[in-house]
Amino acid sequence: MPRTPAELARSAADAVSAGAFMVHVHPRDETGRETLETRHVVDAVVAIRALTPGLRVSVSTRDGIVGSARDKLDLVSRWPTPATGGPDCASVNWHEDGSEEVAAALCDRGIGVEAGIWTPEAAARFAGSGWPGRVERVLVELIAGATPGPGGPGAAALVLAALNGPGAIPEPVVVHGEEAWAWPVLGWAAAAGHDLRIGLEDTCLLPDGREARDNAELVGAAAALAARQGAGWAGDASET
After folding, report:
1. For residues 231 and 229, what is the distance between their CA atoms, to the nearest angstrom?
2. Confidence of residue 166 (pLDDT cuts 50, 70, 90)
3. How far is it, in rounded angstroms, from Cα 233 to Cα 31?
4. DSSP 8-state code for residue 85
């Protein structure tokens, strides 16, 4: 599992070699804990860019990295712009407290926002906000146990129906699932023409049930799936 900046950079480069057009990472501190501290975020982003110039790098702002929504906003507000070492974009889970404030802080720094949507309720909240048209993409995340309704593709269909309820969402949609949902969801998303994301954050298993060697092997399998369906996809160089 890649954790240090150098390991994340190598994993990102390998994912790109397997076909990824961007990567998503979870920077960590010296103890191995996920962090939003500026120096660790910058270290990870700079290392990735040094090994793969021009690669678009996304980071996480998920709950649980820091103790509160206030702490999260304070830390994200200190990040530098992409031109000075900050990430190109960051995922913001729309069901979490303070999501719109975090998204606004990112935009203030020229950092793109990926709106993470886990549930139909979060989809409706996003669709009815002032944010459609302002984010870089909508990231539909199907998390077993967190996403209600039928599993896998059924849950994805529920979330996307809620997204499109008030009107078409202008941003591209990228889809990923976790554990047993990962590959069924990606198969459905590819057939529907959505972009895909895959990595060790989602599953350690290949479609045939074998344990993946690394992120790149997962990416290669997703690339083959996307090619068969004509979809795009994003690599995930994350360690979690």
Report:
1. 6
2. low
3. 32
4. T
